[in-house]
Amino acid sequence: MDSRHGGSPQAAADHLMTLMAQSAQAPVAMVHLLDGEQLRLVGAYGLPPQWASALSVPVSSALAGLVIAQGRPMVIGDITADARVPTEASARAMGERAYLGYPVRDVDGAVAGVCAVLDYRPRLWRPDHLTAVDQGAQACTAFVAGPCSAARTDEAQRLLAALLHSLQIGVAACDAAGRLVFSNQANQNLNGELPEGIDLRAWARQKLVQPPAGMLPPAVGPLMRALAGERLHGTEIMVERPQQRPSMLLADAEPVTDADGGSLGAVVTFQDVTHRHSAAVLKDCELTIRRLLSDSEIRPADELLQETIGTIGRMLDWAATEFWTIDEVGTVLLRRFQWTDERKLLPPGLPERLGHGQGMPGRAWQTSETVWATDLSTDTAARVQAVGWGPLRSAVAVPVPIGSVTRGVLACYSTYTEHPDDVRTAVMAGIAAHIGQFLERRRGSALSDELEHSRDEYIALVGHEIRTPLTSILSYAAMMVDDPDLPTGDRVEMLQVVRRNTGRLQVIIDKLLDIAGMQSGDIAIDSQRMDLSATVRAAAAAFRTRFTGKDVTFDIDGPDEAILWGDPRRLTQVVDELLTNAVDWADDGSRIIATVTTDGPATQLTVSNTGQVIPAAEREQLFQRFFRTQGALTNAVPGTGLGLSLARTIIEQHGGTITATSDDDPPGTTITVRLPTDRPAPPPDGIRATTADAAPGAAG
């Protein structure tokens, strides 16, 4: 065989080295045969340009010489650090660092050459790499057999066929007439059974005009191009399969020619790089989400979260995504955001809330682990959400942590049959962690802003709300001391002013002590069975009796009884504060509406008035200590900015929430309180927020 002048043996050797390099995941593969004291290169893949002229080298000057001298395989992870490699051989290396060589033996078992792969970086050769090179060396026996018996030729061919069939990469070949002559098992797994005995070109043309048009096995196109003389390297091919995510293949194809350049056929190899491609897309999505949630600290959190779940859906090809948050009052999950692609495939009537352990999101909340459903139609948890999922087939639910506590769940739905793997699970968990970190940053920022505001407002409170009554008290006390003959009527009037201002100071101090005491735990909530409806009616009746400063009417709506566990005295304080706030901002002649409703595990109280609208930016600070709206300051509405802050503290100590909303038609404000109906019990891990945790939510 002439080693470097073309011909079918040379082409076969080169193709064999190509397959061996791909199977061993090495950039270079070569086979040398002994020719006296020389090693003659007879086949190669990825040969560096500087080696193109070194077609024959002395046995003693090459690493292959070590394999021949020892008569056994040589596995070298790092040439520069392996004591078996002579210093002069290491010095002559042209960039190679790792080497794996097996002896090629003739039909009598004598060493006749070396089959080897090498890499330009140190590496650890895996067992499957060793197997690939070993089988390649055995197949190379065909190149040194010379005239041999038909039995030995057949044995060599079987060895070559066994090597090709054992490869994890797909291999297919056709002759010059376009007829399939070889297809290994890996190729059949990727392409199915290709027709034999007919011209694949004619078969492809006929198939393209039959429905479904354009659905050709991925091997056919590259084979046809190679038959036409084209060489392909690393061509990406996306393969669509029913109900499965698309597969990404890398194809190499080239024509096979004889010594005179005539066509002998074509060969194509395929590597399935779907997992590698998927991992790259997942990582890109994770980086995009991280940038999205970290670049802007001024955009509203809801806007960013909605954009986030849409980005996850689009980049990772989900049909729909959802973000669920934990309602700490009812101890349930509430769907907060939802995104679907243009197909809108989510079934109608999906529940807006799920209990602990219910549905896929509830199970992820319960276990604090990522939950996959390969088949939504049979998954027990998924059937709690919907009996029929239509074209949706699989889903994943990922807990969103803040520290070690689950605060939400990210759910994604797919039209493909998903098969979970460690990489996808880890990256999805990483994306959820970025969302959790974003929520924690926003919570910390809100608390920092509130602390800063409280400090400023505290100074203002001392400067005005406390100093003003103190000034009046001191002034009148001084007048009474300095003038012992002061008329009795004047003295009584001055004492009334002192008492009124002393009472004002007492209210401020009591509220401050109540807030501080409850937040520190020094003042406990005395929970017992109570009727919130009765509490609201009684508070409204008392309010009507003592309040005559404005022409407003009270409208109380709700069930005859609304039984819950709470502190009657503290909740009466809350109702009084809400009614006072509503009256202060109500228009003359308007109605104040207080409504009590029960909603399963939660009881709700809303207090609404008609009057001046509180701007959105101020509503977010309404429950902060000492905060007073610009309207209150401009219109000289009396108050300390402590009433709603005290109400929030009491509600949070009951495990509830308090929020404010405004309407434009008619203009007015509604404050909503939600309280757990049942006796507080130890909640599932981490779902009960502290006062500090709940502060951002309460503010908006």
TrEMBL record:
The entry's keywords: Kinase, Phosphoprotein, Transferase, Two-component regulatory system
Region ranges (Disordered): 674-700
Keyword Hydrolase: no
Low complexity bias: start-end ranges: 689-700
Reactions listed under catalytic activity: ATP + protein L-histidine = ADP + protein N-phospho-L-histidine
Region forming the signal peptide: none
Protein name: histidine kinase
Annotated source species: Actinoplanes sandaracinus
